[in-house]
Design brief:
This protein is an alpha/beta fold. It has three helices and four strands, in the order E-H-E-H-E-H-E.
Length: about 110
């Protein structure tokens, strides 16, 4: 079976975290609910270089953690990953930083 990564995307305050919290409550689930730690996120419009540095570290950490989790779980559900940055980078006319990390996700993961 291929590994599967489900990424829930959407506007702020659309209910992504509420959905993850509800999924976490399911007993005997056969998937892992991955919650991202956004602490320390700088504002892009005020600290662009700090934001890009933070984002690179953040995505690198996510990829490493996901690869480790796929040793145990076949299905992982999370909010926001590479796709968010691609949308927001285009929307705010900033550097696309995360697409380069996609190749670092396990080759047997279906996104």
């Amino acid at each position: 079976m291929n590994k599967k990564l489900f990424v829930i995307e959407g506007f702020d305050r659309a209910g992504k975290d509420t959905l993850l919290n509800d999924l976490e409550k399911i007993e005997n689930k056969k998937f892992y609910v991955y919650k991202s730690d956004l602490s320390g996120l700088p504002k892009y419009d005020k600290e662009q270089s700090d934001f890009i540095s933070w984002l690179n570290r953040f995505i690198d950490t996510q990829i490493k953690q996901l690869n480790e989790l796929f040793n145990t779980y076949d299905i992982i559900i999370m909010t926001r990953l590479i796709i968010s940055d691609e949308v927001y980078s285009t929307l705010f006319n900033r550097e696309h930083t995360t697409i380069k990390y996609l190749k670092n996700l396990r080759e047997d993961v279906e996104l």
